[in-house]
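Readers of this paper often ask what the protein records in our data store actually look like. The remainder of this section carries one protein's record, kept here as part of the documentation.

:::
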Amino acid sequence: MAKGYVKNVGATGVNLVARSFVQQFSEEWFDPLSWGDLAVPVTKGGRGSAWFIRSDAGDLVLRHFCRGGLPGRFIGREYVFTREDAVRSFSEFRLLDELFRRGYPVPEPVAAGYQRRAGLFYHAALIIRRIPGAVPLAEFASGQCQKTWQAAGECVRRFHDGEVYHADLNCMNILVAADKVYLIDFDRGKFMRPGQSDRWKAANVSRLQRSVSKCLSEVDDQIRDQLWQAFLAGYGSADQ
């Protein structure tokens, strides 16, 4: 299967662009200031480095790769450049391209880019198509939402059965739109080798459970447990 994107070297950096966007794409797309009022900061889960974009090509999401935690306070967007294949935005874009073309419920990748900085560093950015009407799973927090959580479990299990590792599986990276569940934010994600230990899958689910406890901390304990059990029922349904 041919790749769904092309590589080009622009005036400011190197880019991967989906074939369906080649004619419209400009390197300025990676700069939120170039969009003016058409760029709106993502306030939930964006870490101040993501924007919703209203463009002639449709609604998009721009994300600048930024370090979290304590390192992020000092080095922000700086990543050490070792080789092009290891650039964070390129790795995520290529994974999304493969998943999207295989029919997995992920956002359509639009473009990825990086710019070399002084010394050994680079800045990276990624653009995806925004999923219309998508809402984080964390917002489905009532007793009437068990079917949604069950569907989320089925979705995660599909990725795990395909040996797809998500490095940051949490309530904000599982989106629900029109009764369909999607996974987003595949930074550091990858295909695992078939036949190796499945411990990473259990660790993935445990990570999500910790996120549920944190994001739904104000929800009644009984309801939170019902939702989590619904997720596990969906996740385990493939065994039945």
Q: What stands out?
A: The mean pLDDT is 92. The helical segments are 69-75, 88-101, 146-161, 199-215, 221-236. The chain has five helices and 13 strands. The CA atoms of residues 66 and 72 lie 7 Å apart.
